[in-house]
Amino acid sequence: MSDETNTYTGQCYCGATKVSVEGDPMVSGFCHCASCRSFHGAPFIGWSVWPSDKVHVTGQMNKTDKVDHLARATCAKCGGKMMGIIKGADMTVVFPNVLAASGAPFHPAWHQFYAERVIDIVDGVSKFIDKPADHGGSGETLSETGEALGATG
């Protein structure tokens, strides 16, 4: 077994801000909440989480604290969406598109806030009304087209 840790590096649209992460993400998924949709201008977003001490940034970023649990960060020059810092948890969300060219793994474990979705996603990945119970949610799931299924996680 190797002690080597993979490092994945990516950048914003203009290249002025770069991010590197050490190791594979703790968990990855998709978010359908209105706040993420509004911030990203997309019907849903992908996310991956690393311990904050494994995430390194060069360049300047602007941060917004619009929501209580997350400080979102963009490149100060081009506005490219880079990451979110989970407040009080020492964890950082790096958006997979930032690291896509580096080969960083993205294996989504679930869809969260699927009840707020604007399109159905048929991919076989669990769909939570909010979040899995062990991540602070109700654990209630929906079918890929929105029918209630019950608690699973």
Question: How would you sum up this structure, described in words?
Answer:
The protein contains two helices and 13 strands, in the order βββαββββββαββββ. The chain is mainly beta and 153 residues long. Strand 7 and strand 8 (81-86) form a beta hairpin. The longest helix has 7 residues, at 34-40. The chain starts with 6 loop residues before the first strand and ends with a strand.
Ordered list of secondary-structure elements with their pairings:
Layout: E1 7-11, E2 18-22, E3 27-31, H1 34-40, E4 45-51, E5 55-58, E6 61-67, E7 70-75, E8 81-86, E9 91-94, H2 96-99, E10 110-112, E11 126-128, E12 140-142, E13 148-151
Parallel strand pairs: 3-10, 10-11
Antiparallel strand pairs: 1-2, 2-5, 3-4, 4-9, 6-7, 7-8, 8-9, 11-12, 12-13
